[in-house]
Each structure stands twice: as structure tokens, then as C-alpha cells.
Amino acid sequence: AWGIKVERVEIKDARLPLQLQRAMAAEAEAAREARAKVIAAEGEQKASKALREASLVMAESSSALQLRYLQTLNSISAEKNSTIIFPLPIDLISHFLGGKEE
To answer: What angle do CA 24, 29, 34 make, to 5 degrees?
Structure first.
């Protein structure tokens, strides 16, 4: 069999219409955004699993929860915020108001 076998073709200068360039750029941007969303979703999933595991550990020890609470307050105070909100249990607040919720 006679013929020509082409092993490689090299293009040195290709000029694409501006509209095609824009379409290719938009497609590449959409692909990047899709990958970023997948990466962000995977990060959220890992974070939620870590939070679940941490909550299970803290549920076993009230002192661990109290230490975490104090650590959070410490980190908030280090940020030079002018207002710090202290979350208090409802039963503690109702005790000071004179009523007791049941």
C-alpha cells in the first residue's frame, strides 16, 4: 500500500474571529466557576463532618463546651470589637426575671 503517513501537524499562527474568542473565553470561565463550586461544596462537606464530630465530643463533656465557649469569647475580644453578645440559656434568664419556665 502506497501513501503518505502524517505523524504530526504543527500550527504556527491561527487567527480566530473575535466572537469565537469570546465564546471560548466564556466557556473556559464557566468551567472554572463550575470547578470552584465543586471545590467549595467539598470544603463545606468536610467542615460539616468536622463540626459534627466536634459536637459529639463536646456533648460528652460540659466542661469541654464551656472551655470552647470561653475560647470563642477570647478570640472575639482579640478582634477589638465594640460589642460582644453573650448567649445565655433561657432557663438562666427566666430565673433572673422571677419566673420559671416549665
So the answer is: 125
CB contact at 8 A, 46 and 39: no
Q: How far is CA 58 from the centre of its chain?
A: 22
Beta-sheet strands, E only, within 1-102: none
* Structure confidence by residue, pLDDT tens digits, 13-67: 889 999 999 999 999 999 999 999 999 999 999 999 999 998 888 888 878 888 8
* Residue given cell 467539598 in the structure block: 42
Sign of the dihedral defined by the CA atoms of residues 70, 72, 74, 76, in that order: negative
Q: What angle do CA 61, 90, 80 make, to 5 degrees?
A: 75
Distances (CA, A) of 43 to 36, 37, 38, 92: 10, 10, 9, 37
